[in-house]
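note to self — DONT lose this again. spent like an hour looking for the file last time. sequence + predicted structure for the chain T wanted, 352 res
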Amino acid sequence: MEVSPEAAMVNHGFFPKDPWKDAWQFILPTLASKLLGRKTPWDQVDEVRTLLELYLKTVDTPEQYRLDEAGIEKTWPRMREMLRHNRGMTKLMLDHGHQSRIVYPYILQGAQAISLEVFFGRAFDLTGEFVAFPINEMAAYYAVWEPIGVFIRERVAYAQFLLSRPHLKVLTCGAGFCPEYRLNGFPARALQHNVIAVEEDERVFDHLNLVYGCDPKELGITYLLSRVENVYCNPLYHNKFDVVMAQGLLSYYRDIGSNRRTVELLAGLKQLLKPGGRLVCDLQAMEPTLIRCAECMGWQSKLLPDWTAKSAIRRMKKACQKAGLVLTDIKVDSRNRTPCGVMFTLQRPEKA
């Protein structure tokens, strides 16, 4: 019998909490470490290792989770130092992270394109394998309940609605594994889209067949290892696409106190669109679990979220005006108490 994600969490003894309360209980100890220099006691650090080893002895195939120098022992010195200098990270591991084959490697992995797959049920486990994890895995908490995960899945649904017209030529920037073409029963094969997926993380290419269950070219998706800037600066791609997808991208192009980089990116992506073509994008907003990921799970990146959804909308309106794009649709992340972001559709005017 198939078990729902919600039922699995109850059976696992881990209940969804208020996002602010859940996040700040880990964020505050981290800030104490960073701002006040309060290190984690060594006995708490080593307790994480002990609890993790005890947990691994209960899994179905414990022999694959090696504790010797070929396995966890190889990564433990680095993790031990990270825990020593981050009390919030240690609290997270002692609280529930040790009951997972996913959380430990994802702290070491950091914020990468491939990491977002945790919200769709795939992740690196402690053996270094990129696998689909069972719903009763502790990491399923993050996949099911995290406000960021809810927003990302809502973002996928938003894109799928806009991609529902057949025979489109699409360019997807920062593509990752293109979840919009393989989730929610989306009829990717029937639509026969011509998709170029631009991704700069080489590791994504190692797992394409696993994630898609086939060569993505069978779905009309051609992957290109490149930076987005290289694509929109290439005249061969100008005026070619009905839709350009740039989800999860623009918040990396924010300047504090300036819109310059955002405007430059939007103007560059505009060149790729046919007249009347649409650009699908979003901006992330500051919210507690995003702070927790950055501070307590070591997900350091160049992401600069806007303070609120309202400020993100104001900034996008100004950027569109300067880039010569028309803002045709705004959708605020609605399923979270504190919005994680805003989704936008922009259009290149039919006439310059």
